[in-house]
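Task 17 of the worksheet. Students: predict the tertiary structure of the chain below and write it out as structure tokens. Keep your answer in the requested format; marks are given for formatting as well as content.
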Amino acid sequence: QVQLVESGGGLVQPGGSLRLSCGASASHFSLYVVGWYRQAPGKQRELVAAITTSTVTNYADSVKGRFTISRDNAKNTVYLQMNNLKPEDTAVYYCNVRLPILGGSGYWGQGTQVTVSS
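Model answer:
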């Protein structure tokens, strides 16, 4: 039912920045909890950042202080600002949205590739 489209990935040098966007088709987008996940080759998917309906945020320790998650409910869009990127940030980044009342895993985007390399 809910479709997500991620954009903003690409190739960047260490220390550089990228801003990922995730547009959602969901009605009542403000009621969804949103998370950014990433999966590197050969690694398990991990939560990078999340933002609640009250705009409370949390981050993985590995990105704290470098990444910022935000949302614009009027545009049905969530962002991930990534600064001071490191090679270990290289991964496919996925957007996830879910309604807490429904539980489950919610909805996933197709992913966008982020490559940090010199």
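Marker's comment: DSSP finds no helices and eleven strands in the chain. The chain has a mean pLDDT of 97.
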